[in-house]
């Protein structure tokens, strides 16, 4: 139960960060990808800030013998770069570039009840 509560709190914190940073607004993402006069560097600063927070946290976590709420770390062992990985990555990037949404911000944006958001999440 503690793991579920911790996961919920982490998800809520992540969603709040997306809202505060404006990353649940697809126009921000699309303006970041548009290198013309409308270019918006906000996404780069959000990513940089996330790295500054996550890097020390990951360093601390990797020093532990086991996770706080599990018996062992569940770290993927495969390093294979295959067609499924490449096609999935390409589909993710193309979808993000076309719509301005990726799964996390889209779920946060559901609260707006906008038709485009509901169609994206429903798809």
UniProtKB/TrEMBL annotation:
InterPro entries registered for this protein in UniProt: DUF6691 (IPR046513)
Keyword Membrane part of the UniProt annotation: yes
Keywords: Membrane, Transmembrane, Transmembrane helix
Protein's UniProt keywords contain Transmembrane: yes
Protein name per the record: Membrane protein containing DUF395, YeeE/YedE
Species, as recorded: marine sediment metagenome
Transmembrane segments: 42-61
């Amino acid at each position: 139960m503690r793991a579920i509560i911790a996961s919920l709190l982490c998800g809520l914190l992540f969603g709040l960060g997306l809202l505060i940073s404006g990353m649940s607004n697809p126009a921000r993402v699309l303006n970041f990808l548009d290198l013309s006069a409308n270019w918006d560097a906000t996404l780069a600063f959000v990513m940089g800030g996330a790295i500054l927070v996550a890097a020390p946290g990951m360093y601390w976590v990797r020093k532990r013998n086991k996770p706080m709420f599990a018996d062992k770390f569940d770290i993927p062992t495969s390093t294979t770069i295959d067609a499924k990985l490449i096609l999935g990555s390409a589909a993710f990037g193309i979808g993000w570039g076309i719509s301005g949404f990726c799964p996390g911000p889209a779920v946060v944006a559901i609260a707006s009840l906008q038709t485009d958001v509901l169609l994206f999440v429903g798809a």
